Amino acid sequence: MAGDIKTLKETSNYIVSAGKKRLEKSTLTLILQGMLAGIFIGFGAIAYFKLASLAADPGLGAFLGSAIFPVGIVAILMLGSELFTSNTMMVMGVYNREYRMRKVLKVLAIVLLANLLGMAVISALSSFSGIFTQAMTDKIIHTAEAKTSMSVANLIVSAILCNMIVCTGVWAAYAMKKAGVKILVLWMVITVFALSGTEHVVANAYYMFTAYLLGADISFAGIGYNLMYVTIGNFIGGAVVITGLNKLIITKRRITVNATKTYTQRERNAIYAKAYGGVNENVITYKEDKKKTKK
């Protein structure tokens, strides 16, 4: 079982490697993949409202809707699309001094705008397709109106919590080596996110864009107000909390070995690999070295 899961360091390295590849993509590629991600999240949102509005019991409806919502983010993971919230973890490369924050923020801005553009497309298609029942319409409008009236503090804190959950699910999926297990882990965690009702900038865009087209009492100013503060909170939750804490854990795990023993290269590699999942002696500290340092 352990062999089917990457170590924390291996997963971190994968995220940094993915970040480097993302930085090399053209603006057009980022826009197209970002639009697709927004559309995929919209698919999940449509299914959520469909199931949530059909159930007579609100609790059951919320559970059923939340259980189907992850289809969108699973599609993003499997098809290699670009989603702002999970992409915030590419800040790990900045912590590792592999690339600069300025470049990361540029990519995140492009991806976010593309996500919102894709969401606008799926909102328009679903709004004018005739697929919404009156119950679905009422639920979407109620959800959107509630989101545009939240306080700044509530929006930011809820958005931080949201992306802590989402990035935990994506990090865990990256750590799994088998596709089926990746999907299962991600599905379970994103179901928790959907049940939590926390603020996700891309999902919120679907609710509010669609509600606006369906005649909700909301304005573009209200939509912008929500998306601005939720973006800030999502960034903090993903880039600072989840990625930052994992970076601290990896950094603080140092190895001390007995300098009186002669280690072969294979033994040294095994010591490092056991803790980090790779081969690198830079962090191995010898007891003899510590004594010399004290003198």
Describe the model:
- The chain is an all-alpha fold.
- It has 2 domains: 2-252, Glycerol uptake facilitator protein, CATH 1.20.1080.10; 255-294, no CATH class.
- The chain has 14 helices and 2 strands, in the order ααααααααααααβαβα.
- The protein has helices at residues 8-24, 27-54, 58-68, 71-79, 84-87, 92-95, 101-127, 134-147, 152-175, 179-196, 201-213, 220-252, 265-276, 287-294, and strands spanning 255-257, 284-286.
- A two-stranded parallel ribbon has the order 1-2.
- The chain is elongated.
Provide keyphrases for this structure.
disordered C terminus, 2 domains, Glycerol uptake facilitator protein, 2 strands, two-stranded parallel sheet, 295 residues, mainly alpha
Task: Characterize this entry briefly.
By secondary structure, the chain is mainly alpha-helical.
Assess the beta-strand content as a share of residues.
under 5%
Class by SSE composition: mainly alpha
CATH topology of the largest domain: Glycerol uptake facilitator protein
How many strands, which pairing sense, and closed or not: the largest β-sheet? 2 strands, parallel
Silhouette = elongated
Helix content percent band: over 70%
CATH architecture of the largest domain: Up-down Bundle
Strand order of the largest sheet: 1-2
Low-confidence stretches: 279-295
> Any idea what the radius of gyration is?
22 Å
Overall number of structural domains: 2
Let me know the average pLDDT. 88
Distance between the termini: 46 Å
* Superfamily (CATH H level) name of the largest domain: Glycerol uptake facilitator protein
- Classified by CATH, the class of the largest domain is Mainly Alpha
Tally of helical segments: 14
Instruction: Write the H/E string, N to C.
Output: HHHHHHHHHHHHEHEH
Strands, total number: 2
